[in-house]
Write a structure and sequence with these properties.
single chain, 7-stranded mixed β-sheet, 3 helices, 27% strand
């Protein structure tokens, strides 16, 4: 009986170790910063079980064109300021940071309907996106103008290319508003997003 209990305890310990190893495979530390490895990250799923697309959230520095149909004086181009607001005629400051295009459109429609216009119809488009940032082992790190469909290799090229100490096999990325970096192995089909903070790590050997 004692031998049976001993075998059961050994099996339980091995199972616990396997679980811990599996969990640790999703995260790691680099220079004291916790990172998530892209290859281990599970895609977000919508209610139908299909991969959910990432919704673009507006942020400081984005420039928007708001067109209120039939109301030229209320239409124009507005930049989201440091407080996350746009200054609209008639209705004043409106919180835009954190909204999607659709949710901001609904919010503006509601504000304009509240004693100002009857059944307002409007359109909102982004005319200029906020910049992205590249630093770490690049030649000229800094802030760069965002362009659609920008790859991570393109972003590094904008920063003057790799330094001689750079690890060119991956980058560490933190989306605006997030606190954790995650790893993207290069080359990657993923694209840079406005506000992304891209760090090129150092090669250790």
């Amino acid at each position: 009986m004692d031998r049976l209990f001993h075998i059961i305890r050994v099996i339980a310990c091995l199972a616990a170790c396997a679980f811990m190893i599996t969990g640790c495979g999703q995260y790691g530390t680099l220079g004291g910063v916790e990172i998530a490895r892209e290859s281990k990250m599970q895609p977000l799923l919508d209610n139908s079980g299909k991969p959910a697309s990432r919704v673009y959230r507006l942020g400081v520095g984005d420039k928007l064109k708001v067109s209120v149909f039939g109301e030229k004086d209320l239409s124009g181009t507005f930049e989201i300021n440091a407080f996350g607001l746009i200054a609209m005629p008639l209705i004043g400051d409106v919180k835009a940071q954190g909204h999607s295009i659709d949710s901001l459109k609904r919010h503006l429609t509601q504000r304009l309907s509240d004693g100002y216009l009857k059944s307002p119809k409007l359109a909102v488009v982004v005319t200029n996106y906020r910049p992205f940032y590249v630093h770490g082992e690049v030649r000229q790190g800094g802030e760069f103008e965002y362009k659609s469909s920008l790859t991570f290799r393109d972003a590094i090229a904008k920063a003057g290319g790799y330094s001689y100490r750079a690890n060119t096999s991956y980058v560490l990325v933190r989306h605006e508003g997030d606190t954790q970096e995650f790893r993207i192995d290069l080359p990657s089909a993923r694209r840079v997003l406005p506000g992304d903070n891209i760090r090129v790590p150092e090669r250790w050997f």
